[in-house]
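Issue 218. Parser rejects a valid record. Input:
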Amino acid sequence: MHVNAVRAVGLFVGAGALVVAGGWLFGAAAGAQFGLALVVCAGVLVHLFGDTLALRAMRAHPVSEIEQPELYRIVRELATAARQPMPRLYLSRVRSPNAFATGRNPRRAAVCCTTGLLRTLNEDELRGVLAHELAHIRSHDTVISSVAATLTGLIAALTLVAFLLPLGESEETDMPDLLGGLLLAVLAPLAAVVVHCGVGRHREFRADEEAARLTGDPEALASALRKLEAGARTHPLPQKRPLFAAAHLMTTNPFPCGVGRLFSAHPPVAERVRRLRGLRHGWDLG
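Output the parser choked on:
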């Protein structure tokens, strides 16, 4: 928990410095002031809404136990076995099968599933995916993920600055378009770097292993990961700016192609499946 908290602070300070420096580069003192204002706003957003931005981006809504009794049963059983609080449950009406967890701490955590996930997986596979998300909550990965999601959204939003502020001295009509394209080319990879530096792919391997130990069935999670990868290709999420900020939270990469791939913080599914099968093999030998 303490390590993730330190990483979250370091990530925010580092990204904030880059935003201010970028503002100075494109708009001198005025640009730096605008960048600083954005950083302050981002700090407020992280504190107040960092754990809900991804839910808003996915247009998720809370579901009751009456609406999803099986989902509640599975999550409650897993949370009880893991000795952690029951998270709030959300549903996003998206065909692409996926899930994610968010929240500043386990007592404020939420797990969101897409309707595509519930339709695609059987109970054992669903149990594996939900155990994976509970593992992220238990390890406090959601703290830094919320910061990374907010900063990614902020940096991606900076591509609109050229259309809102007169950052250049030229009065040519094509200057905003030129600056907008330049900002997009520079800041999209920067936002991706924020995700990769802040999140790290090792957390997915760790969550996979913890989920397999919690359920006792690594093969079910491996099967679910393959189905999620196939489902993302068949029904990819639309490549929209708000969804890019939530991509690293997902169980698997929701953007199999296009610029959205930049924001993937996930190891290859084939490698995750190989490790899960190796875990099963080790248990059998033991």
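Fixed in the parser; the record now loads. Residues 166-176 have pLDDT under 50 and may be disordered.
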